[in-house]
Predict the 3D structure of the following.
Amino acid sequence: MPGELAIRLQGVVKRYGPITAVDGLDLEVPIGTCVGLLGPNGAGKSTTMRLLTAQSIADEGELEVLGYALPGESKQARARCGVVPQLDNLDTTLTVAQNLLVFTHLYRVPRAERREAIERALELAKLRDRRDDRVDKLSGGMRRRLLIARALVHRPQLVLLDEPTVGLDPQVRQELWALIDALRSEGTTLLMSTHYIEEAQRLADTVLIMSHGTAVAAGRPSELVLEHAGREALEVYGPPARLAEVEAEAVSAGLRTRRTGTSVAVLGLDGANGFLHEGERRPANLEDVFVLLTGEEIS
Ligand code: ATP
């Protein structure tokens, strides 16, 4: 496989009429890593995921998945990928184990290996004791775990997760993070789209921040923070007029700022650069980078 990349996109463009959903995107996912595609609503994450599964065809650019060129060799690529959709499309009339069995057929797992494949998926999703329950009897978190496990029955080389924890409560999200982390430690290559900063920071080896269909930054979360937001931020609280004053002063001192409701964060305070204000010093973080680069507040 060229350069040991599981995914290689170069100059990819996808238009929907007058809207350019993906606008010259480059993306590389090395084998054995977890890459997080992070971006605000409408940044083009889902479109990128659809291009990778050949549900959409790019207007321009080169796409390779596991060494197969898309869309020409999408069948071969798809057979080796596991896809976790954003929306739950489990068959609620079937049991947990039956849902997995259907996918062993779809993915052509040899008959002699199906049982073991289902056991492994049940174990990963921690659903062994629910195997004979109908899916409509499961909690939301269990269904999500099954949705991920279902994508793994054929031991895919690459797993694509589209917003795996969108709309779930924090406890369920933590459970799913543990599951995704277990996959990572098994060496599965993962591409995960998300608009949760913490999710990307916790799970991804490298993050690609998307805005308006293109990559605005890519790298390890810690490196991105250092490069774009520096080491430290000063959070200054106060009434709007006071915040505006601090902002103006920071900008004239060549510093970047970010409004966070009742406070303004002054970024890039690496040492004594003369910006002395009452406030709370804190380490800069990926959220600062996200807001600086995309201009979007966190939802
Ligand atoms: P979200 O986090 O809200 O899912 P996203 O980053 O996944 O956002 P996309 O769904 O890829 O973003 O959308 C990118 C842009 O393309 C948006 O402006 C969207 O309205 C547009 N778009 C996506 N799919 C279609 C479609 N089938 N027809 C027309 N426009 C589309």
